[in-house]
Amino acid sequence: MTAARGSMREASTTTSWPRWLEICLVLGSLVAFAVWSYLRAPVGGDFAWSDAPRHALNGIFVHDLVAHLGEGDPRAYAVDYYLRYPALTILFYPPLFSGVLAIAYELFGFSHQVAQATVLSFAVVLGGFTYLLARRWMSQGFALAAALLLVGAPELTVWSRQVMLDLPTYAWLVGSAWCFTGWLQQQRPRQLYGTAVLVVLALYTKQTPLFIFPAMLAGLLAGPGLAVLRRRHVWVTVLLMMVALIPLVVLQLKFGQVNSASAIGSARADLSRLTLAAWTYYLEIMPSQLGWPTLVLAGVYLVGAAVRPSWRLPRPIMVYLLSWLVLGYLMFSFIMVREPRHDLMVLMPLALFAALALQRLAEGWLSGRAYAAAMTAVPVLCFAHAGAELEIHPVQYVDGYAQAVNYVIERAPANSVVMFSGNRDGTFIFDVRASKRTDLAIARADKMLFRVAIERERGIEDRGVDTAQLRQRFVDHGIRYLVYDPDFWQDQPSMAALRSLLADKSSFTLEETFQLRANFNNQDKRLQIYRFEGELRNPPLPLSAELVGVGMKLQK
């Protein structure tokens, strides 16, 4: 075992890249892949996933809120902001990524392009941390291969090209693994402090990495054991982490009921925990998440490590990584809402294992120049594989919303309200706020006509609004333009009232229709722009909104 590890160290030393070349190759590869990803991402206000424009809008809100500090009551400002742009989810999700976006917006302006570039900057961070983690046990070329196998995993390439929280959370989490494995091996206090900071950053980006705590405990017990509890820096770290997470716990208890309900028992038609399908769901889709080459190589490593002690990592590290994989898998299988992106951060150990298999095989079969050639060829092949995944797996988009927004903002009266009735309200609202028409406010027809907790699948209650009441709301709230999807929720009585009202030629004029284009089977086909011809109240009555998911009503 010692001889085998000695040969590994010798191979990695005699074939190592100079420091300057290492930095250039690793950083250059990751930046090049991020740029390639950006060029294959929708960045024209054509969001497909409903949460993506909301995350992008949250960043604008944080930017505007910081700019407003010192000029009035922040809470009143936040309420007014939501009433003007009712697609915010800043309190339903942790706020860290919104803060990062706010900085990017301050530097480069508000746009879908800036939001997407910010997400992809975390692909570089994720790849960098994966490389540093892998370098603890691998030579440079194979460590870079591990990083590219992870950031180039098929499912990750899809979600890294949308403005979502998964990639930033993943980056912080893998950074914590780099620090924690260093602490397991060297017991330096700063490594444990770094672990705590990065875990807290991950949780303040998204709540789901909770599985990391039992995985860390398992690694601790397999390594230094309970004797480590005698060390002062361990207790200091635990205490500081608990204090740092108190605000997040408060936010979750106050505003995260819907997310908690989804985890415990969703109102959607999800797989029951009592079925085998629920517990094998992520196993079945793992090949499409990671790709067969990575999965097969990871299997080769695990089999090899089981029969050959020289293939194994130090025991605490193996226990930690396997616990990361197994406990994370069990946690996400327990959560009722199961989607391919949810368990992505669980799969990091498999990318490491795949690269380790390549290195162990190369060490056994190659030496000298042949090993050096393999160390160069493997990351090149992994980069090509990652690029192929970008080309093979296009990201969904729905194009046409930006054109509808441009039409409305060119014609809407100053300080007026635009009503939106359609499926992708987040896209429309973000595109309006990212424009220069900061005087406009948006009213959502679905909030005015129905009671819905986040999404229709969780239940919908029609408010019973008739045509006369609906027309009066246009008058009272100063709504001159309506952007209308004629296929949206047409089975509901209140939507029938709106449809009937729009048929009144004396009250509404259909000015324009925009066809929507998508690269998937999308329900959104067109947006119609109606102008309300009636007299508007001056000054208009303020808007109000009910947050059904948290049992709160907002009004000025």
UniProtKB/TrEMBL annotation:
Keywords: Cell membrane, Glycosyltransferase, Membrane, Transferase, Transmembrane, Transmembrane helix
A biological-process GO annotation: lipopolysaccharide biosynthetic process
Residues annotated as domain Glycosyltransferase RgtA/B/C/D-like: 94-249
InterPro entries found in the cross-reference section: LipidA_mod_glycosyltrf_83, RgtA/B/C-like
UniProt keyword annotation of Glycosyltransferase present: yes
Transmembrane annotation, as ranges: 20-39, 85-108, 114-134, 141-161, 167-184, 196-222, 234-253, 290-311, 317-337
One Gene Ontology CC term in the entry: plasma membrane
Cellular compartments annotated: Cell membrane
Domain of life where this protein originates: Bacteria
Bilayer topology: Multi-pass membrane protein
Listed GO MF terms: pentosyltransferase activity
Name of this chain's protein: 4-amino-4-deoxy-L-arabinose transferase
Species this chain originates from: Roseateles puraquae
